[in-house]
Amino acid sequence: MGDDIRLIDAEVLRAQLVGVLDHHGVPAEQAAIVADSLVEADLRGVDSHGCNLLALYVARMQAGDLRAVTEVSTVRDDGSTVLLDGGLGFGQVAGRIAIDLAIERARVHGLAAVAVRESTHLGALAYYTMRAAEAGLIALAFQNGPTIVPPFGGLTQIFSTNPFSYALPTLDEPVVVYDIATTTVAGNKVILAKKRGDATIPEGWANDEDGNPTTDTQRASPMHLQWFGGHKGYGIALLVEAMAGALARSCFGRTERSAATAAGRDRVAKGYVFITIDPSRFSLPGSGAGSGDGSGDGSAADDYRRDIDTLVRDLHDCEPSVGSAGVLVPGELEHRRRAQRLAEGIPLSAGLVAELDLLASAAGLRALGS
Amino acid sequence: MGDDIRLIDAEVLRAQLVGVLDHHGVPAEQAAIVADSLVEADLRGVDSHGCNLLALYVARMQAGDLRAVTEVSTVRDDGSTVLLDGGLGFGQVAGRIAIDLAIERARVHGLAAVAVRESTHLGALAYYTMRAAEAGLIALAFQNGPTIVPPFGGLTQIFSTNPFSYALPTLDEPVVVYDIATTTVAGNKVILAKKRGDATIPEGWANDEDGNPTTDTQRASPMHLQWFGGHKGYGIALLVEAMAGALARSCFGRTERSAATAAGRDRVAKGYVFITIDPSRFSLPGSGAGSGDGSGDGSAADDYRRDIDTLVRDLHDCEPSVGSAGVLVPGELEHRRRAQRLAEGIPLSAGLVAELDLLASAAGLRALGS
């Protein structure tokens, strides 16, 4: 590990984030949720969605684009379907309320869809889908945002990187959790390659400003990212827009539907939808170890979890391709990183630590690790 | 159009397919559904899922792997969630029953999930999701099958090409319909390139037998197809397996869970899951042109359809990238082809016409176009 990396204990980092948020007027319970989302992302190695976001959140609160106190209201509640309004407060706070509602409702109705409009940056979607999977449910999550990526074959920015996540419950294996941007990479990967002066970027990352695929780093445009897998990934991005934007009665495409003034590529309002499914509703009659009545109790629910365990093991048992260290299931690397970082600390760059220390200092807190 | 192509009228083709199926003991109503699925795929230009499948279906009926009379039974019915058994009959027949049930139940419950186990080849998934979208609902479809594709980073065949489809309802625009294999291409594209003696295949299609990506046609293996977009597409394939296989209590991974004897790469049993969502459940109170009460009636439902129309137009209004004829929405090319082929006939190769004529002759029917 280089000189410019510091290892920070997760609990120390969490306390620091809570302290800064508290200083800016975020209520204690809400600050705890936001900090948990960021620390969990850092623990799992999803650094783009970790504590580096604190500076952005503080700047947005100071600019009035993000409300320190998140007030979530119910627009419609029809049992299996709910539409919430996130009040342009913290996405994590509305997101936790939404996923917990989706968990509760799927248990009652078999499946549920909870949509949130007028929310903001959610952090990593895996945070929410994993929570539902750990509660025994299948969960899907769709989220949209500012207009920064053109559609396949176009030059006009109309979508965000439109993330999609799912998680599957397990019995003995860690939950399976998939969380992707529907672009091949985030725009900052292209920007970083330019800054480093890399001659080329991998095929499939970005187009030039005419929309032609390129591996020439200097010609590649972070405003012309490619969709993963070309038109097929574009189709997934469109589904995300149709769910998180249109269904959640939020902004979508060129349509602004927010009390926030920032629009288009500066749009802060995000919509999202969580779909949860109770797999015990699909157990065969007479199944369920120790139960035998298939009535959807704990034992019948285990049928599905056991299947996902089996599938994970089937995948791990596959012969690896030449040069591959073995077949992975989504979320596996992140689970391993989390265990390691919980034990050893979270590696943060000196620059990021300095940034956090500045925020801490302004909040009257001591520097990290001091 | 070359000498080896014949243009066949859709209604003539439909009658021929029904005639052959009838000869093999498929009840009239069921034969009509199977024929409709195949003719619709041919009309939309999805030739791989059209009338060329008739020979396979007849061979499977003769081998006893596909029952001529499809008997669908209800395993569990809990309102918003239903598990059906397709009785190893025609996938199209069970599929139509399943999607119609998913439409009915989403209207009652806001959303629904209908899973089918012990079914067989469904034809194109778009056939089912479009039906739900035309009924005003959002629909998702997941289907698995025989073990013919290794996971990302592996050499052991464990998944099928695991198709995924969605469709979105519209008001004035044609419905948006996405229907993909989660592999970049089907195996027969690699086989055809080998037969033609093409020197190379496009990057991203297939690996060699060691699992290394290759563009060398002769080294590429149709048993080592690549997932669209690499690990991201593999993650979608895994979701399909977890839904269509595990949730539908059907075969998945290496687990056989079927009365059929054919297993693994010869597996005929397929599972699938349809999820339907009624977007009128998410209309804002007071919205809906002419309604004003947001109560989920026809007018409120129009809110979402109007949004999808807007999104389609946003996409069409995008500046095209250099060399692109314009931005397309999923299903658009297929809608255009359908209109053209309805008017001009469906182009079938002479070889396919000869195959159909042989089946017709055995059934005591006249040759196509005779």
How do the helices and strands follow one another from N- to C-terminus of chain A?
Answer: EHHHEEHEHEEEHEEHEHHEH
CATH superfamily of chain A: Malate/L-lactate/L-sulpholactate dehydrogenase, NADPH binding domain
Task: Classify the secondary structure makeup of chain A into a structural class.
Answer: alpha+beta
Per DSSP, the total helix count of chain A is 10
Number of domain modules of chain A: 1
For the record, the CATH architecture of chain A stands as: 2-Layer Sandwich
Describe this structure in words.
With 370 residues, chain A is an alpha+beta fold. Chain A has one domain: Ribosomal Protein S8, Chain: A, domain 1 (2-Layer Sandwich), CATH 3.30.1370.60. Helix content of chain A is 38%, strand content 15%. Chain A is built from ten helices and eleven strands. Chain A has a seven-stranded mixed beta sheet, with helices on both faces. In chain A, a hairpin with a 5-residue loop joins strand 8 (206-207) and strand 9. In chain A, helix 1 (10-23) packs across helix 10 (350-362) and helix 4 runs parallel beside helix 5. Mean pLDDT of chain A is 94; it is low at 289-298. At the A-B interface, strand 4, strand 7, helix 7 and helix 8 of A face strand 4, strand 7, helix 7 and helix 8 of B.
